[in-house]
Write a structure and sequence with these properties.
Elements (H helix, E strand, L loop, with lengths): L6 E5 L4 H12 L3 E6 L2 H13 L4 E5 L5 H15 L4 E4 L14 H29 L2 E6 L12 H21 L4 E8 L5 H6 L2 H10 L8 H12 L10 E4 L12
Parallel strand pairs: 1-2, 1-4, 2-3, 4-5, 5-6, 6-7
Helix pairs in contact: 1-2, 1-8, 3-4, 4-5
């Protein structure tokens, strides 16, 4: 019960990695707010958590809207009285080769992945600073550390999230709030099952020493560590959970 009596917000909590993190946090004792643009999905996750006798609520928000991010923290405070943890998992991705990138597509992915992270973290952190305690956990990606074909929008947005995480760590650390990021490698989800072709999957496996995709539960466990009190001296770090992908250079003799 590493998160007993803590209150955690998880954006993108209606599906995929966000849902897995929300469920893991609840199992570790936290009251969880599942926030998602698809409120029905968020409610389904919250209902599942509540069935296990844990506290949870769902909120429908668009992270690109500053007023929605403000409302997220306000409603959490009304329901639970505090905010200890926020996980910024809401994000989008699309295939965007550099020479073909359209301004509207690039701007959209930056609004969701970068501005959404900024807006939600900022409002939650203001409350955490008042409390003198908090954990900000952003979901970055290996695509923010290493370039990939078609990742002009997604990779750039995640590189920016990494930079923003370090900026948060610098300014929030003296105020009792840590900021870190989880950098997932390719993860087995319904989305990757459809979006990753056999060629893409093999290209990843050729560069991953562990020769497999990660599981949602493994990403959620990394987030749980960063959210706990035991990680109090971990600040400004990017925890890559990628089977060794970011460590590899030449992998064949």
């Amino acid at each position: 019960m590493r998160l007993k009596n803590r209150v955690a917000i998880v954006t993108g909590g209606g599906s995929g990695l966000g849902a897995g993190i929300a469920q893991r946090f609840a199992a570790e004792g936290a009251a969880v707010v599942c926030a998602d643009i698809n409120e029905a999905n968020a409610q389904a996750v919250a209902d599942g958590i509540a069935q296990d006798q844990a506290k949870a609520m769902a909120i429908g928000i668009d992270v690109t809207k500053y007023e929605d991010a403000e409302r997220l923290t306000a409603e959490t405070l009304r329901e639970f009285g505090k905010v200890d943890i926020i996980v910024n998992s809401a994000g989008i991705a699309n295939h965007m080769p550099f020479l073909e990138a359209k301004p509207e597509d690039f701007q959209r992915i930056m609004r969701v992945n970068l501005e959404g992270t900024l807006f939600c973290a900022q409002h939650a952190a203001r409350q955490m600073v008042k409390q003198g305690y908090g954990r900000v956990i952003n979901i970055a990606s290996i695509s923010g550390a290493r370039a990939g074909i078609g990742r002009t929008g997604y990779g750039t947005s995640k590189a920016a999230v990494i930079g923003l995480t370090r900026q948060m760590a610098l300014e929030l650390g003296p105020l009792g709030v840590t900021a870190n990021a989880v950098g997932p490698g390719p993860v087995e989800t319904p989305l990757t099952a459809v979006a990753h072709s056999d060629i893409t999957r093999q290209a990843y496996l050729d560069l991953i020493p562990m020769k497999r995709y990660g599981e949602i539960e493994e990403m959620a466990d990394a987030a749980t560590f960063l959210a706990g009190e035991q990680a109090g001296y971990v600040n400004g770090q990017i925890l890559y959970v990628d089977g060794g992908f970011t460590a590899v250079g030449i992998a064949k003799e």
